[in-house]
Amino acid sequence: MQKPSLHALLGAFGVFGACACSGTSSEDHCSGINDPTVLTLVNVVPALGDSVPNQDIVHSFSIADDIVFSDIALAYLETHTAGTPGPALKFSYEIAAATTDFTSSPVVWTSAPGHVELEAPIIYQTPDGCAYELPSPLFAYDVTAP
């Protein structure tokens, strides 16, 4: 099965992504584009290694910092076999006291059973030159027939 392109899942930014920060990052020094900081995620759903029914799957995660992305480009990793999501994954965010929380609309994958493995392969850079990336994989779980 041919894997869908990055553009089929979400629009790509190229090398850099759009990012906005409040300027109160917990780091005294920030890494530049050549050595981006890998962000710490909490509350990743579905959790890495989970097995979930292929029905109205909501993806969510929280970043333990004050970073906000205007969009998240995703790509399939080599072990992804679940096809494409319907509808395409789009995230909204909410800024909480200690985290920035991202949540997608519910999706169903075109191939179940299957394995979902997604990464965000771009570096997000702030106006002040700080660079960040999301851990890889961002999501890795199995889908079963509903």
Would you write up a description of this structure?
This protein has one domain: Immunoglobulin-like (Sandwich), CATH 2.60.40. Helix content is about 5%, strand content about 40%. It has 1 helix and 15 strands, in the order αβββββββββββββββ. A hairpin with a 5-residue loop joins strand 13 and strand 14. The longest helix has 4 residues.
What is the level 1 CATH name? Mainly Beta
Regions with little confidence, pLDDT below 50 for 5+ residues = 1-26
Helix content class: under 10%
Overall pLDDT, averaged?
Answer: 84
Order of helices and strands: HEEEEEEEEEEEEEEE
Number of domains: 1
Kindly report how far apart the N and C termini lie: 22 Å
How many strands appear in the DSSP assignment? Answer: 15
Strand content: 35-45%
Instruction: Give the C-alpha Rg.
Output: 15 Å
Q: At the third CATH level, what is the topology name? A: Immunoglobulin-like
Query: What's the architecture in CATH terms?
Result: Sandwich
Shape field: elongated
Largest sheet: 5 strands, mixed
Number of helices: 1
Quickly give the structural class: mainly beta
Order of strands across the widest beta sheet?
2-14-13-1-6
Task: Provide a brief overview of the structure.
It is built from 1 helix and 15 strands; from the N terminus they run H-E-E-E-E-E-E-E-E-E-E-E-E-E-E-E.
Topology diagram in text:
Elements: H1 6-9, E1 16-21, E2 37-38, E3 41-45, E4 51-53, E5 60-63, E6 67-69, E7 75-76, E8 85-86, E9 91-95, E10 100-104, E11 108-109, E12 114-119, E13 123-125, E14 131-133, E15 139-144
Parallel strand pairs: 1-13, 2-14, 4-15
Antiparallel strand pairs: 1-6, 3-5, 5-10, 7-12, 8-11, 9-10, 12-15, 13-14
